[in-house]
Write a structure and sequence with these properties.
Layout (H helix, E strand, L loop, with lengths): L1 H12 L2 E4 L1 H16 L11 E5 L26 H8 L3 E6 L33 H8 L5 E6 L5 H7 L2 E4 L19 E6 L2 H11 L17 H9 L7 E5 L9 H16 L3 E5 L7 H16 L20 H12 L2 H14 L5 H21 L5 E5 L15 H5 L6 H6 L3 E9 L2 E8 L5 H11 L1
Parallel strand pairs: 2-3, 2-4, 7-8, 7-9
Antiparallel strand pairs: 1-3, 4-6, 5-6, 5-10, 9-11, 10-11
Helix pairs in contact: 6-7, 7-15, 9-11, 9-12
The structure holds glutamine.
Glutamine (GLN) binds next to loops.
């Protein structure tokens, strides 16, 4: 049914870069056969899932929406993909995104944007716009995204779906094409909080192949989501981030957010206003740290190891081939990040830019830890504005970067955060963000589920 739905609507939505029809049907049949033989089935047996194209899938094209990886078929599965298969899920295909996950609208995909199912003239968010749109268009019931600065949560917010960024290190990065390694976090996208928790439980947990993977048991996120759905938040303290709840966001976004805060109070929660004075520096710190790490990570795309190679006619030097390949293979936003990052890391500037940004990161982490001494979770809108029309923020990169104003602090800290739909503004979905302490992903699910 989902393959039929994709065939019917994806020409208009363009959530997918690749649909693996044969693979999906074979996986579904395998589950049927297992069932017929009376074998024990995986926890998500037969449930279709869409996977962001930045995650390696064995034998299936993986491009990170870049021309430089066009035609590349990974020889291995990411750990997350292995776990999805072991759980019995059926992978439908690979979803569209901003090139190398750099962006907030999918307009930077080298293969054309994804359209928001709520209004095809508007962005579906980014970078994981394809995963979120596939859910909103009922092309998939579950999807995988990656969140470096908001790329799971912001697309969730603007498509009226649920997107959760787990604790950094709670989900394996093995097989994820690296953007900013100290921030990249794969996570679940779904239409309900409980569905997100079920997917979270399947993909999370220690992986010896990722050196930053946390060797601790995953909190019981499914039980927490079910408990929250019961609607009792007695004794739960919500910290309303003062800096994110006033001016700066669209009035309709703020109205929907504050209405939901009232609803949580009716369920027994207590709301405390919390000031996080360093959050306003998160965006500039992120746009030094993330491009610095990206400039290093993207050095591997040299025209030799994977995908595209340009100008290799036997007369050119290796360096000329590399530079022609990179010039032709990378899009404008990726080049901007590489240039920014290379500059920030260059000798003489390192301390002033990268070093300074790391210090700011520490101050932001302290804002979180001192807030969590007083409250259980922090809350804010997910993004300052609803889905915007195509082209309205591409001419000024800073306008695009603002989409992640409220999501980025969590990435710098490393804790979990989720976006849940909380009503409409001018007919378009608004997202409510719940941020929790590291490894308290269960707490985040409990509060999020109470909102539904
Ligand atoms: N929009 C942010 C960026 O462009 C976040 C990206 C992400 O989370 N992958 O870097």
């Amino acid at each position: 049914a989902h393959l039929d739905r994709i065939a019917a609507v994806d020409e208009r939505v363009h959530a997918f870069l690749h649909v693996d029809r044969e693979g999906a049907l074979a996986a579904a049949r395998a589950v049927d056969e297992q069932r017929a033989r009376g074998e024990e089935l995986g926890p998500l047996a037969g449930v279709p899932v869409a996977v962001k194209d930045v995650i390696a899938t064995r034998g299936i094209p993986t491009t990170a929406a870049s021309k430089i990886l066009e035609g590349w078929k990974p020889p291995y599965d990411a750990t997350i993909v292995q776990r999805l298969r072991a759980a019995g899920t059926v992978m439908l295909g690979k979803t569209n995104m901003d090139e190398f996950a750099m962006g907030s609208s999918t307009e930077y995909s080298a293969y054309g944007p994804t359209n928001n199912p709520w209004d095809l003239g508007r962005i579906p968010g980014g970078s994981g716009g394809g995963s979120a749109a596939s859910l909103a268009a009922y092309e998939a019931p579950l999807a995988i995204g990656t969140d470096t600065g908001g790329s799971i949560r912001q697309p969730g917010a603007v498509t009226g779906t649920v997107g959760a960024k787990p604790t950094y290190g709670g989900t394996s990065r093995y097989g994820l094409i690296a953007f900013s390694s100290s921030l990249d976090t794969p996570g679940p996208c779904a239409r309900t909080v409980e569905d997100a928790a079920l997917l979270h439980a399947v993909i999370a947990g220690h992986d010896p192949r990722d050196s930053t993977s946390i060797p601790q048991p995953v909190p019981d996120v499914v039980a927490a989501a079910r408990r929250g759905a019961g609607g009792d938040l007695t004794g739960v303290k919500l910290g309303l981030v003062k800096e994110f709840a006033g001016e700066g966001a669209e009035p309709g976004v703020l109205a929907a957010f504050h209405e939901s805060v009232e609803a949580l109070v009716k369920l027994g929660a207590e709301v405390v206003e919390i000031s996080c004075p360093h959050f306003e520096y998160a965006l500039p710190a992120y746009y030094l740290i993330a491009p610095s790490e990206a400039s290093s990570n993207l050095a591997r795309f040299d025209g030799v190891r994977y995908g595209l190679r340009v100008g290799d006619d036997g007369n050119r030097s290796l360096e000329e081939v590399m530079s022609l390949t990179r010039e032709a293979g990378f899009g404008p936003e990726v080049k901007r990040r590489i240039i920014l990052g290379t500059y920030a890391l260059s000798s003489g500037y390192y301390d002033a830019y990268y070093g300074q940004a790391q210090k700011v990161r520490t101050l932001i982490t302290r804002d979180f830890t001192s807030a969590f001494e007083r409250v259980d979770v922090l809350i804010s809108p997910t993004t300052p504005f609803v889905a915007f029309p195509f082209g309205s923020r591409t001419s000024d990169p800073y306008q695009m970067y603002l989409a992640d104003l409220y999501t980025i602090p969590t990435n710098l800290y490393g804790g979990p955060a989720i976006s849940v739909p909380c009503g409409l503004s001018e007919g378009l979905p608004v997202g409510f963000q719940v941020m929790a302490p590291t490894m308290a992903d269960d707490r985040m699910y409990r509060v999020a589920a109470a909102l539904e």
